[in-house]
Every structure is written in structure tokens, then in C-alpha cells.
Amino acid sequence: MDSVKTSYGQVMLVDNGGFFPEQDNQQDIAWFLMDAMKVLGTDAVGVSERELRWGVSYLRFQVKRTQLPLVCANLLDAATRRTVVQPFLIKKIGTVRVGAFGLISDKVDLGPSRDSLRVEEPTAAARRTVAEMRKKGATVVVLLSQLGKVESEDLAAAVPGIDAVVCGHNVPLIQKGRMIKNTVASYGGEQGQYLSRTVLTLNSQRRAVTGENESFILGPEVGERAEILKLVKDFEDAYNEKLRKEEREHAAATTAEGADHYLGAELCARCHSAEAQQWKTTSHSVAWQTLVTVKKDATPDCIPCHVVGYKQAGGFQNGADAARLGGVQCENCHGMGTQHEAFATAPRAVTAQTCVGCHHGENDSEFNWEHDLPLVAHDNTSGTTLSKKKVHIDPNMMKMGMKSGSN
Ligand code: HEC
Ligand code: HEC
Ligand code: HEC
Ligand code: HEC
Predict the structure, then answer these.
(1) Which of 63-67, 325-329, 391-395 has the lowest mean pLDDT?
(2) What is the DSSP secondary structure assignment for residue 225, as one 8-state letter?
(3) Residue 254 has what pLDDT?
């Protein structure tokens, strides 16, 4: 945006809408995105049914809080027939009065507020709104459309006076936008990965005569602005901390019930120091560090077989548990520590079945009990499995592993 502003001078920044997150428990992200768009100086923002997912009063509250300029010309309160957010806005960009309006599809489910809202037929709403904006002095008109690709294009062709349309709602990326009659259409793709630039050339009456559009991926070569980087980082840190807290509470709740749960190898080592010492000579003890080294320690698909009791009671919930519950430990083979009483007197047999829970499929299609057990059995301290590892573990990383109970 900064470089576009520098090169073109008269620049308007718009967002097409559809920025509320997909998951129910992610209201924080909705807050954050609206704050961030405000900081970025977004001049107009469209609305999709996503923004209605927590109800219309939630959206109204956020608009009031952030003063973000949301526009939608055909989303009406069923009772009052008034638009839920302003239908359009006219903004002076340099010397040009630009009108921006939004449209939402009349074929979508409006979620919790479906009964209290009504969507006006888009073409009729567009004709009325374009005329009103022109009357009020807008010489350039921009549509933030949530009608999908085909309907956005049809509408731009049917309603004269729209200079640029931003096509949204499951619209695939088209790198170079195209002309639909006299309208420049842009297709910036999904998930905010692209910045789409529409350039309009104006005549002396400040009306658009030609235009073109191109979308650019926001890749690593686009420099970060320190202010925004900090905003994102602060949000992510706080969000991560919140999730961590929730998980801790969840884990505490499941263990507090007195149900069986995992304890971690450090405890076992206090009494079984010989087995613990031997275990440290096997690659099972560094299975977590392996994931850290290959940078997959935050990938949920990889974690289960490389830690103790993933997402189970007392087990590994997230990276914060790595020092205590990272790696393949005693309890992976012997069962939850709280069942110790039971397995001490009537030991749960460790069988091939125990091993193939992890040693199977593409992770180890060649598992062989007769061959593999001796490599990790408690009387083998040769360290073969560690020395034959394919992934080299940084010795400094070992410090986060388990402390031995032998001293
Ligand atoms: C407070 C000391 C103590 C702690 C802590 C402890 N154990 Fe034990 N464990 C024992 C004793 C004592 C026995 C009884 C068998 C024996 O005499 O070796 C035993 C037995 C066992 C056995 C069965 C041995 C057999 O005879 O087949 C296993 C397996 C075992 N423990 C694993 C664990 C694991 C895993 C943990 C950690 C979750 C753990 N223990 C924690 C003291 C302890
Ligand atoms: C919780 C999952 C899990 C269980 C249960 C498990 N392993 Fe492993 N095992 C692993 C992982 C993960 C590695 C790779 C560790 C690394 O290098 O990071 C591994 C490595 C090994 C290796 C060294 C690599 C190889 O395949 O030669 C042997 C041998 C081995 N395990 C044998 C066993 C045996 C025998 C059992 C059962 C008594 C068993 N494992 C149970 C997950 C498991
Ligand atoms: C179903 C259980 C399971 C899952 C899921 C799993 N692993 Fe493993 N992983 C193993 C076992 C078992 C071994 C040991 C196999 C062997 O070496 O024969 C292993 C070994 C490895 C090794 C080799 C260690 C070494 O130094 O030799 C790496 C690296 C690894 N896993 C990474 C991953 C990554 C990355 C993922 C996610 C994409 C993943 N694992 C998911 C069970 C699993
Ligand atoms: C890869 C699986 C595996 C892991 C990991 C493992 N054990 Fe074992 N453990 C076995 C097997 C197999 C036996 C042999 C007895 C059996 O079949 O139950 C055994 C036996 C034992 C015994 C009985 C006495 C002995 O030494 O044979 C104790 C105690 C024990 N383990 C404790 C531990 C402790 C403590 C840890 C963690 C530091 C641990 N084990 C980790 C598989 C494992």
C-alpha cells in the first residue's frame, strides 16, 4: 500500500468484506482484523454473511467501536427497512470524489440474524445507489461486491455507471482483471493473500475513461511495516497465551476428576533409575527434539507419536509441555502412570501391539518385533538407535529433555 500510494498519489484502499474468521471461537480475530484495517487506513469495507455470523448486534457493536467504514446498500433491517450499515460513502481522494458501495448476495444464509434481516435484490439496489452517489457528486464509483464471480460480472454489465468492481465471495484469483463493458473487474482471490491494484485514468471532468487491474501476492519480498508487524505479533502472542490458558484449564479439569492421567517420565525415573538411564540411550527419548529439528513441532499431524498422551488427560497439550512430556516415554509403552498400582502388581504386558500403535504405515512399514525390541529393551545400553538416527539432534536441545532421577 505504501509503495502504491507513493507511485500513484490519489489512492483509495478498500476491503471487500468476508474478513470474519471461519471458526466459532475466534471472535478475537474479528476484533483484531477490524482494528488492523483501521490502522491501515482502509477507506471503505464491504460486508458478507461472514460478518453476520455472531449476529447483527455484534457487528454493529464492532463498527461503532472501530469506526471502520462498512458499506452495504442492500442489507436491510426487516422491521425498519433501513440499511444495517451505511449503504455507501463518498470520499474525497486527492481531487476526486469517489463513491463506494457494497452489495451482499440475496442467496446466502444470514446466520443468527436471518429473521431480523432482509436482502434487497442486488441489481435494483445498485441502480438506485449509483444514481444517488452520482447525484451527490461522486465522479468515480466503486462496487465492493459479495455476489460471487458470475453475478458480479452480470451486474456490472447491467448497471451503468460502475467504474470498478471488486469481485468477492468464493471468487478465484485472476491475476489480471478484465473489462466488463465499461467496468474494471478485479479478482483478488481468497484469504487476504493478494493486494489487487486497479488504476483508473480520468478525464478533465474526473470521470474514468480507461482502467486496468492487477493482483500481487503479498509474499516475503513485500517489506514489513514495523507498526503493523508489531500489531500482528502482539495479537498472536496474546492469542497464543489465551489458547494455552484454555488448554491448561481444560487439562486441569480432566485431571481434577481423579480420572487416570499421564504423569511424565521424570516421576518414574525417581524409582526406576536404571530403566530411565537406559531409555535415554534410545532415540525414543529424543523423539520430540527430532520434530523441533525438522520444524514440525507445531504440526498437529506429527505430534501424537512423538510425545506422551497427545491431547489426553495429563498428556501433551502444546509446546509448553515439551520438557516434561515430549518424546516417547515410559507411559507410551507401559500406560498411564496413575494406573501404576495396577500395572505394578499385574504388569500390563508390553507387546508388539504397543509398538505398532506408532510403528506402522509410512512411519515404519517394516516394524519387526523380534528385531526391533532388542534395540530399545531395558538391558540394551548400546545407544544404537541414537547413533543411527537420520536427523541430527543439536546437543543443546537435549537440555530441554528429561532430567535424570539418578542423582
Ligand atoms: C515411588 C516409586 C515408584 C514410582 C514413582 C514409579 N514406580 Fe514403577 N514400580 C515401583 C515399584 C516398587 C514396583 C514394583 C515392582 C518391583 O519390585 O520392581 C514398580 C513396578 C513397575 C513396573 C512393573 C515391573 C514388573 O515387575 O513388570 C513397571 C512397568 C513400572 N513400575 C513402571 C513405572 C512407570 C512407567 C512409572 C512412571 C509413570 C513408575 N513406574 C513410577 C516403584 C515406582
Ligand atoms: C508413542 C509412539 C511409539 C511407541 C509406542 C513405540 N515407538 Fe519406537 N519410535 C517412535 C518414534 C517417534 C521413533 C523415532 C524417534 C526419533 O528418532 O526421533 C521411534 C524409534 C524406534 C526405534 C529406532 C528406529 C528404528 O525403527 O529402528 C526402535 C528400534 C523402536 N522405536 C522400537 C520400538 C519398540 C520395540 C516399541 C514397542 C515395545 C516401540 N518402539 C514403541 C515411536 C514409538
Ligand atoms: C503414527 C505415528 C507417527 C506419526 C504420526 C509421525 N511419526 Fe515420525 N516417526 C514415527 C516412528 C515409529 C518413527 C521411527 C521409524 C523408523 O525410523 O523406523 C518415526 C521417525 C521419524 C523421523 C526420523 C528420526 C530419525 O532421526 O531417524 C522423523 C524426522 C520423523 N519421524 C518426523 C515426523 C514428522 C515430520 C511427522 C509429521 C509429518 C511424523 N514424524 C509423524 C512415528 C510417527
Ligand atoms: C518402547 C517401549 C518402552 C519404553 C519407552 C519403556 N519401557 Fe519399560 N519395558 C518395556 C518392555 C518391552 C519391558 C519388558 C517387560 C514387558 O514385556 O512388560 C519393560 C519393562 C520395564 C520394567 C520391568 C523391569 C525391567 O526392567 O524389565 C520397568 C520397571 C520399566 N519397564 C520401567 C520403565 C520406565 C521407568 C520407563 C521410562 C523411563 C520405561 N520403562 C520405558 C518397554 C518400554
Answers:
(1) 391-395
(2) P
(3) 61
Rounded Cα gap, residues 179 and 106, in angstroms: 25
In a domain, residue 295? The reply is yes
Same domain, 63 and 167: yes
Cβ–ligand 1 distance for 159 under 6 Å, the answer no
Q: Which long-range contacts (CB under 8 A, 24 or more apart) does 158-161 make?
A: 158/123, 159/123, 159/126, 159/127, 159/130, 160/130, 161/130, 161/131, 161/134
To which H or E segment does residue 93 belong? strand 88-93
Q: Is the residue at 272 inside a domain?
A: yes
CA 307 to chain centre: 25
Is 290 in the same domain as 180? no
372-387 pLDDT tens trace: 999 999 999 999 999 9
Last residue of a domain, one of 203, 223, 243: 223
Report d(CA 184, CA 386) in Å as an integer.
Answer: 62
Residue 74 sits in the same domain as residue 10 = yes
Reported as a single tens digit per residue, the pLDDT across 160-201 is 999 999 999 999 999 999 999 999 999 988 777 889 999 999
- For 29-54, the pLDDT digits (tens) are 898 999 999 999 999 999 999 999 99
Q: Is the CB of 268 under 6 A from ligand 4?
A: yes
**Whether the predicted model's global pTM rises above the 0.70 cut:** no
* CB-facing half-sphere around the CA of 124: CA atoms within 13 A: 6
User: Any idea which ligand is nearest the CA of 374?
Assistant: 2
Measured from the CA of 351, which atom of ligand 4 is nearest?
A: 17
Distance (Å) of CA 238 to CA 29, 32, 241, 252, 396: 11, 11, 5, 21, 28
Q: Are residues 302 and 371 in the same domain?
A: yes
Q: Whose CA is nearest to atom 11 of ligand 1?
A: 344
Distance CA 145, CA 5 (A): 23
Say how many Å lie between the CA of residue 65 and the centre of ligand 4: 59
CA atoms within 13 A on the CB side of 169: 24
DSSP code of residue 207? -
> Which residues constitute the domain of residue 39?
2-223
Atom 27, ligand 4: residue with shortest CA distance: 378
Same domain for 268 and 148, yes or no, is no
Question: Could you give the number of structural domains in the chain?
Answer: 2
